[in-house]
Amino acid sequence: MSEDVEFIICNNCETPCYSFELDRKGNVATAYCALCGADEAKDFRLPEAEDVEDQG
Ligand SMILES: [Zn+2]
Known about the structure:
The chain is mainly beta. It has one helix at 49-52; strands at residues 8-10, 16-17, 20-22, 28-31, 44-45. A hairpin with a 5-residue loop joins strand 3 (20-22) and strand 4 (28-31). Zinc ion binds next to loops.
């Protein structure tokens, strides 16, 4: 039961990033933020429910 991750969040600029790869455990393996240039996995996090759902 794995959920597809459409994007991850850059911890530096809180921007959704679509250029990334996940490892088999679902953790961020590689990623790149085009906005701030972050390119280390630790700089990113998986989106949480509050990031995905519209808080409207
Ligand atoms: Zn960034």
